[in-house]
């Protein structure tokens, strides 16, 4: 029988309601989390490892980096066929994507979580863990990179996002849909993960800020980011990548200082240089702004952090190379 390692990081799946405040707080250990799930032991051999017990808004890129190192060690073992990571739903899509960019090889890594804690009516955690273990142990899940298994669906880490604050069907991959489903004990894939990329810096040694643009935005936050010494900035733009015109001088000053600027849209769909007005993506692209394709701004920020960190603490990034990493991926 194959072995799946379950690494627990925290989240609602490991929470219970506190008797004093009535609010959900971290409470359940990794071992307790998997102990009482009916049928789990007959899927495959299991090993449980507690990485941490954090609510996921407290997860940082440094946690993700350390998690990737731990996962790599498990995947290197011949007796391990895959890894399941339990995580809070709030930032799950970020950690899942970070690991997608940080792991090589064919073995599946499946993130799962819960929208309801274990002491609520109809908790979804146990069923999600069972489904995630089935996927991590399944041959068709190989070469699929980092996956998110929730509510019987299997999503690509790159595409998935949390779409609702409370509903158990919160994880969706807008426009693309899930890669597959878990139907009872069967793991069924309908599409593959294409064009994955891997970046393996020695440490996260660079600083990247994300700036959300809204109507009436100006250059103030870009100038502030540059003044605090960032190496990269992701701007979250409108539609095809267009930004308010008063942002443009801030982008120009950032580029002039050697800061890499990446543009990711708030809508979903591809950023593209098809609008030529002041603030349009064509103007930005000609200035040297990199288009993030279909990545959300949060995911583009993690990808830029990994890419820039590959150049080392003193290394200057080659903007054309950074652009190729973004623009030649999906
Ligand atoms: N706030 C929780 C967290 O992300 C939500 C959850 O896990 O569903 O840790």
From TrEMBL:
Example of a GO biological process term: asparagine metabolic process
Keyword Hydrolase attributed: yes
Sequence similarity: Belongs to the asparaginase 1 family.
Pfam family for this entry, one: Asparaginase_C
CDD domains associated with the record: L-asparaginase_II
Keyword field: Hydrolase
Ligand binding (substrate): 56, 89-90
Source species taxonomy: Bacteria, Pseudomonadati, Thermodesulfobacteriota, Desulfovibrionia, Desulfovibrionales
SUPFAM superfamilies (UniProt xref): Glutaminase/Asparaginase
GO molecular function: asparaginase activity
Residue stretches making up the Asparaginase/glutaminase C-terminal domain: 207-311
EC number(s) per entry: 3.5.1.1
Domain annotation L-asparaginase N-terminal: ranges: 3-192
Entries under InterPro entries matching the protein: AsnASE_II, Asp/glu_Ase-like_sf, Asparaginase/glutaminase-like, Asparaginase/glutaminase_AS1, Asparaginase_C, L-asparaginase_C, L-asparaginase_N, L-asparaginase_N_sf
Enzyme class, broadest EC rank: hydrolase
Protein's name according to its UniProt entry: L-asparaginase
Organism: Desulfovibrio piger
Active-site feature positions: 12
